[in-house]
């Protein structure tokens, strides 16, 4: 479901590093060369490149990117090269209630991926992700977000339908009473497996008529409700969630490059194929065309490379 | 710091399994043989024995122990052979507010060990530890226990002293206001690293005069406060905590075999040497002597084997 194109014959890591180093050297930077390498390597390969680059040139690749690249192009190359631990750390530092990055990392990754990000967080920042989230948030947001980022859900498909029925009822009662941040809603969304939550939300719809997210829209401007809806979508339907983030980023007055970059860089290797299909269905325009229309230069080229678009070299 | 004695020359796993199988066979069970094997193998060896036993005899070793052993001896051999995931699962099912097993598993293990227990929990029970804890508890207990068992603390020694000072102040304010289950106390105890919490509690004592646990004793009979004190002790001074559990288990009218078994079986391989020293300092009687006086037969022999006591074969 990835849109990333890795060539069938990949150069050695040493060669990749040498080429990257060359791209940074001399007068001006060779952005095309950077895209042709980094835009066509998977996560494991990129990790290895960072490691060998640092060993060979005594400088973190990230530092080199910092120095050589600018603005949106720099950002997309960096988000693509970094891992979730960095994104999460950044999000804890500039937390605003509308920041959904933490929800995405906590809910749209597999339980194992979230765990690896937490492990990387320890190594990089000498503290835990959850303590930073807890420290930088408050009130209802903290109540929901700390358990979400601390979760290590069961990852299997086993589902308990009796439980799904009873918890659908609990959710409906609490939502009807507008107790959106009550213990039960937080508990169900932050501890149950994705398969179990999916079953519960199906029961919810069967039993009470509405998608839960429709019932969570009582006040469309309430930031906590919007985070709650993002949580639900990232858990049970991440492709639809990301399609909408992309659509809003592209359609609004003045493209939201931050969101565009984040979604393309974090989903290209996961489910971007499906996101593209969803986008086309919903907007009647291919995603690459829409992005090409809204962006330019190296930034555009990098995004399109990640979307699997053939480059006009 | 372990009291477990593993012989310098350990028989092959196949031999161990054969001997165990022999111990279960025929008329009567050879308890001495079981102790001489299982009482002298480390966790990795016991795990391998269970695996090979199942492959060789088509029966889980646990089932065999179930059938052949009884009462306290059965319990100590099983707790010793099982891992934390089982103990935790048992604890979620028969939760009473005085049950401190979950606190011990969440706080007296290393962050990595807790994580491995959660992973084993997924595999064994097809759900997460935290969802079971959340489902079976309520109120203040749930508020504290779910984040504790969900924690994946930073495990390093780095400490932020400014943070320690400010959080010591927060703890003191909340405790003075008797807000024992407030967000801040739960957040600090469930997300900060053990080294950081230790620094914070040192600040607390320097600044406000008392050990925090003294201030958490406002009502000695309050079950939530007692769980909170256990949390603090398991985090910063597990040996003292377990020494006291042992001391109370032995000294009370009618030994508390449940607690005795749990502490010996879960700490023999961790810090039992220190616990023994603490016990002797505090009670002026060696722990082995005290246990030998309070227990009999195979149960006594197994406990003493785990305490590193030379067996009088």
Keywords:
calcium/phospholipid-binding (chains A, B); 313 residues; Annexin V, domain 1; mainly alpha; globular; 4 domains; homodimer; AnnexinD_plant (chains A, B)
Shape descriptor of chain A: globular
Please identify which CATH superfamily of the largest domain in chain A we are dealing with: Annexin
Proportion of residues in extended strands of chain A: under 5%
CATH topology of the largest domain in chain A: Annexin V, domain 1
Q: Considering DSSP H and I runs of 4 or more, what fraction of the residues of chain A is helical? A: 55-70%
Number of strands of chain A: 0
Structural class of chain A: mainly alpha
Radius of gyration of chain A: 21 Å
- What is the number of independent domains of chain A? 4
Total of helices of chain A: 20
Spans of chain A of 5+ residues with little confidence (pLDDT < 50)?
Answer: none
CATH architecture of the largest domain in chain A: Orthogonal Bundle
GO molecular function, one term (chains A, B): phosphatidylserine binding
InterPro entries (chains A, B): Annexin, Annexin_repeat, Annexin_repeat_CS, Annexin_sf, AnnexinD_plant
Binding site for Ca(2+) 1 (chains A, B): 24, 26, 28, 68, 250, 252, 254, 292, 294, 300
Organism (chains A, B): Erythranthe guttata (Yellow monkey flower)
Architecture overview:
Two copies of one chain form a homodimer. The longest helix of chain A is centred in the middle third of the chain and has 16 residues. The first copy, chain A, is globular. The first copy, chain A, has 20 helices and no strands. With 313 residues, chain A is an all-alpha fold. Helices cover 70% and strands 0% of the residues of chain A. Chain A folds into four domains: 57 residues, Orthogonal Bundle (Annexin V, domain 1), CATH 1.10.220.10; 69 residues, Orthogonal Bundle (Annexin V, domain 1); 81 residues, Annexin (Annexin V, domain 1), CATH 1.10.220; 68 residues, Orthogonal Bundle (Annexin V, domain 1), CATH 1.10.220.10. Chains A and B meet through α8, α9, α10 and α12 of A and α8, α9, α10 and α12 of B.
